[in-house]
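From the pipeline queue, job 12 of 40. The input is one protein chain; the requested action is below.

Action: predict structure.
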Amino acid sequence: MNIAELQEKNFIQRILGPLASTAKAEKFEDAVVIDLVDITGYPDAPYLVYSLDQPYFIHHADTSLDPYRFYGRWIAGTTCNDVIAMGGRCRGFSLALAAPPETDTAHVEAIGHGINDVLRHMGAVYEGGNFHNGDLATVGCAWGTVPRHGIVRRSGARVGDRIVVTGELGLGWLEYLLRRHDLTDLIDDKDKRKFRTYKSMPVGAASAVTAVAERGQFTSGMDLSDGLVEFLYTVGTRNDAGCTISADKLPVSLAVRRNSALLGRVDPDLKQLGAYPFLLALDPGYDSPMRHAFTVRPGHVAQAQAEFAAHGAELHVIGEVTATPGIRLRTERAVFDIPPFWDDNLRQNTALSAWAQFIKDLDVKG
């Protein structure tokens, strides 16, 4: 048996799970958690959380942005993302860099400047790392701390908790698909700049997330690097519960709504996006690392939203945790079961073809 036969989630759980404690399905979290009480002996010592990531070189839509500087931002943004998801205040970052000898030193400097762009936004420090002679590749390590009462795990949600997301959804996936299929010239003129500059600084509402987490108001949560549907299924499986979200509460912007019908040019099966643009919120995770999802007790929602507003961010309530098992989408005319779907690094077909099949299986148009 090879890795591809198992696919990503099964590979982690079946092969890595018996070897690494945090890879077990019941213990899997966004970052590794170290209890400093065990080390320091101080009963109020915080948790230390750290995460490793190996982001590949991707090109941003804005061609005026130095690609190496954006790569640095992407490395730091995606790595710190997991620390933020657990309520951590990101404090330090290091980088293992491989590059061939002929690499222009200006490119390496640009990567470093991009990393610092993101870290300054978070109040974190670029501390160092390692260098190796080889093909261009990076591994980032980010660490932070979180108070004991503020740690956000994937388990902890309770029936009645509200499901919230930390900003609009769907723009990243739509932008990627339109750019990938050379359709950006057809984007509505009033929206072209928004599409072109999205994620140029790939950092979400970090300060707002940590402020609410430090009050102990998130009952569970995770990043959306594999999409909202994965989060909903995680809430269900880790907490023996269900989730129901409402189509009219999914934060899909006017820019996305105005341009969603263009996907019919990519795949005829996606023509329905013109009538049901909210489906873009159920993407494979292309708004990451900008967005996270959490659960919140009903009595804490207003205070959490006020905290986000104070940090210039938004917290959208999209549904609730239910006692009835299953993951569901409520529309004006019916309630639909949402089939499993999330990004998978080992998927044999493309993310687009898998998502198009998911939309067909969901079948909101009937």
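Job complete. The first helix runs from residue 3 to 6.
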